[in-house]
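Input record, target 12 of the design panel.
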């Protein structure tokens, strides 16, 4: 139970960091398009993890945690797109 509560807190903090990152992006079309996707997938990690905690069966848990993993991977991909071509030059955005 402690682990679930800790992950809820960590995913919420992650979502808040993604929101702050999005707010600090330059106002270019490229940064906004990729940023919108990162915003959606990054905040989705937290909301979908909460759904995992309400799973009614092992099969439902596995299916829902798979969605969390997919959203987290999509967020990492978006962050790497923002950082690699120099769209957002900031140490907070270093991934991969």
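The sequence produced for target 12 reads:
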């Amino acid at each position: 139970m402690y682990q679930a509560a800790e992950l809820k807190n960590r995913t919420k903090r992650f979502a808040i960091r993604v929101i702050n990152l999005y707010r600090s992006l330059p106002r270019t079309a490229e940064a906004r398009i990729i940023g919108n996707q990162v915003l959606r997938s990054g905040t989705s990690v937290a909301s979908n993890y909460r759904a995992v905690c309400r799973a009614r069966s092992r099969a439902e848990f596995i299916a829902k945690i798979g969605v969390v993993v997919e959203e987290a991977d999509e967020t990492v991909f978006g962050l790497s797109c923002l950082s690699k071509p120099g769209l957002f030059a900031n140490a907070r955005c270093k991934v991969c």
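The two ends are 31 Å apart (CA to CA).
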